[in-house]
């Protein structure tokens, strides 16, 4: 798969670029060629021009060059000052400017390095300058390629709104560097898969961060997506593996798939490769990880990452860090679920190292790291410059390590696809609802504000058109026949006599009430109230032309929405395997068959 955009080709000279570090399946999957790729064929990629950011005036200095001493603090490189002037290079002010210039450059490099830590929930550094070639490195793509628009966030009592960022890891082998990292040769230059997917939720009050990982083997519904570059439309797939979404138009289809499943509004995405994270591990001197037994990840047939560590806690970096991130055979039961937990441990440990480490002072090392990080990054237009990434980093930096919580989507093994998983009924939705309602996953209080009732006047029930769809289908249990007709009858009996049942089915994990325009919001909320559906499940959608009730898999029987399906406030499901970023005692369980 080729790059989704090309870098700008301005007249300004560019500093040398870091090598293209790929997120190969060797990072996260020894079994990359498992035959579950998209059936649609080619990826339909196209090049797109990356919008360049702005650079503070530096006279005629070229990007990436060391500024002249007198210009380092932002003075005019062509001012014509004489040597010996108070403000010249040899004068007191010039010497002070030179010192400030070196300090500012060091601060810039520190901050740019910390941009990568943002991708793994680190903190922001300091700095106000950035270089043009770093902006050029950043590739951009559209946020949402699905038909359904995502609604705006509800504000809390203080008028604040949460922020959701989808972190995507591509297994693309589209460069020599990526291919050198390993994997089956038949997968080279093939359709990329989103083999790592993590939703980062920053609370509205900026007090906590929650992360939800979705196993790459999750089977779910992928909505219709349209590649904005080629115009190709990828038809909806009712039962497909989640990592295939990336090859159906780009990261915006992965975003649309998450929204389809969770109902969570996603503000941004970042698609990266973890080779950049490995570079950060080298910069901080290694990332401590722990195993409860000696481990050697290698099977008799030669499969495995090759990771070999003695029991206990050890810093990993370079190739060993890469091995840790891709290890599957040897952790727990050898499933992708344990690999995700190992990734969580690594990321949490990286956060702690970045916050405590004071060794990132080598300008050359930091410059290479910054270039590698930005070169490996694809984001939506809303994060398309260093300055926008800096603003986001500023939002994240105040969250204490103790309030960063990593979880995995509750799941069960699929009965239809051997070795695959599906969202666990009830508990997966419970976790998603906590994110939607801005409930901290660490169980501590938040300043969230319940969804407010609309101030829009409500029309008489008998004058309101309502459609009901059956969305109870699950891969495990199929559909419950007649649910749309049954709920339409309930509404008619409550006065909504213009309610009809739609013969089409629309699989939906959670029951929702959708409306096409703000003038119908109040009416939609009235319908929800009549059925006992929470106001938080009333959503605006461009995909409907009237108020539409989609009876989800959480409401397979009964005339009133079941209270058991409602959120259990403040209680993260145990099956989510929550791990706090300040937990320094966690160790990965090692399969006895992989010890030495």
Describe this structure in words.
The chain has 596 residues and is an alpha/beta fold. Mean pLDDT is 75; it is low at 1-90, 118-129, 175-187 and 565-569. The protein is built from 13 helices and 23 strands. The radius of gyration is 26 Å and the shape is globular. α6 (275-283) runs antiparallel to α9. The strands form seven sheets. The protein has an eight-stranded mixed beta sheet with strand order 1-14-9-2-3-4-15-23, sandwiched between helices.
- Beta percentage is 15-25%
Provide a count of the helices.
13
> Level of helix content?
25-40%
Overall number of strands: 23
Radius of gyration: 26 Å
Unreliable spans are 1-90, 118-129, 175-187, 565-569
Mean pLDDT: 75
Structural class estimated from helices and strands = alpha/beta
Query: Any idea what the shape is?
Result: globular
Strand order of the largest sheet: 1-14-9-2-3-4-15-23
Main β-sheet, in a few words?
Answer: 8 strands, mixed
Give the CA-CA distance, first to last residue: 39 Å
């Amino acid at each position: 798969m080729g790059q989704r955009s090309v870098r700008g080709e301005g007249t300004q000279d560019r500093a040398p670029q870091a090598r293209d570090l790929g997120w190969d399946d060797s990072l996260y999957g020894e079994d990359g060629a498992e035959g579950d790729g998209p059936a649609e064929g080619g990826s339909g990629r196209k090049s797109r021009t990356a919008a360049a950011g702005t650079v503070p005036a530096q006279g005629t200095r070229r990007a990436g060059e060391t500024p002249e001493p007198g210009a380092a603090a932002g003075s005019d490189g062509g001012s014509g000052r004489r040597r010996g002037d108070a403000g010249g290079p040899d004068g007191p002010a010039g010497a002070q400017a030179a010192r400030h210039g070196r300090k500012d450059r060091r601060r810039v490099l520190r901050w740019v390095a910390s941009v990568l830590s943002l991708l793994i929930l680190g903190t922001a550094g300091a700095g106000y300058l950035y270089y043009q070639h770093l902006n050029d490195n950043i590739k951009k793509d559209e946020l949402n390629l699905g038909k359904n628009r995502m609604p705006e966030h509800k504000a809390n009592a203080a008028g604040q709104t949460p922020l959701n960022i989808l972190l995507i890891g591509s297994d693309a082998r589209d460069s020599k560097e990526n291919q050198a990292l390993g994997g089956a040769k038949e997968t080279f230059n093939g359709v990329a898969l989103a083999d790592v997917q993590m939703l980062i939720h920053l609370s509205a009050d900026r007090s906590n961060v929650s992360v939800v990982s979705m196993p790459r083997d999750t089977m779910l519904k992928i909505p219709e997506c349209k590649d904005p570059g080629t115009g190709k439309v990828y038809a909806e797939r009712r039962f497909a593996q989640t990592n295939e979404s990336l090859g159906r138009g780009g990261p915006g289809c992965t975003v649309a798939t998450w929204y389809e499943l969770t109902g969570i509004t996603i503000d941004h995405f970042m698609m990266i490769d973890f080779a950049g994270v490995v570079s950060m591990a080298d910069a901080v001197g290694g990332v401590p990880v722990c195993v409860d037994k000696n481990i050697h990840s290698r099977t008799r047939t030669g499969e495995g990452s090759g990771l070999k560590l003695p029991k206990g806690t050890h810093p990993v970096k370079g190739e060993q860090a890469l091995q840790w991130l891709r290890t599957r055979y040897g952790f727990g039961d050898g499933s992708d679920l344990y690999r995700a937990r190992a990734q969580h441990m690594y990321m949490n440990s990286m956060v702690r190292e970045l916050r405590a480490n004071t060794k990132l002072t080598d300008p050359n090392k930091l410059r290479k790291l910054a270039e590698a990080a930005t070169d490996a990054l694809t984001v939506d237009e809303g994060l398309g410059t260093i300055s926008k990434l800096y603003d986001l980093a500023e939002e994240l930096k105040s969250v204490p390590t103790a309030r960063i919580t990593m979880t995995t989507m509750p799941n069960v093994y699929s009965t239809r696809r051997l070795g695959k998983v599906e969202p666990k009924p009830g508990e997966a939705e419970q976790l998603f609802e906590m994110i939607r309602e801005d409930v901290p996953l660490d169980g501590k209080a938040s300043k969230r504000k319940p969804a407010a009732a609309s101030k829009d006047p409500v029309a008489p029930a008998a004058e309101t058109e309502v459609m009901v769809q059956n969305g109870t289908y699950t891969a495990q249990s199929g559909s419950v026949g007649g649910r749309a007709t049954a709920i339409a009858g309930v509404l008619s009996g409550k006065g909504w006599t213009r309610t009809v049942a739609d013969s089409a089915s629309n699989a939906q994990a959670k029951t929702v009430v959708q409306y096409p325009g703000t003038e119908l919001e109040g009416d939609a909320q009235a319908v929800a109230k009549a059925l006992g559906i929470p106001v938080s499940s009333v959503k605006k959608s461009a995909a409907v032309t009237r108020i539409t009730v989609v009876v989800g898999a959480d409401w397979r029987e009964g005339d009133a929405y079941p209270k058991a399906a409602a959120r259990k406030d403040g209680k993260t499901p145990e099956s989510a395997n929550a791990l706090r970023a300040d937990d320094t005692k966690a160790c990965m369980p090692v399969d006895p068959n992989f010890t030495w």
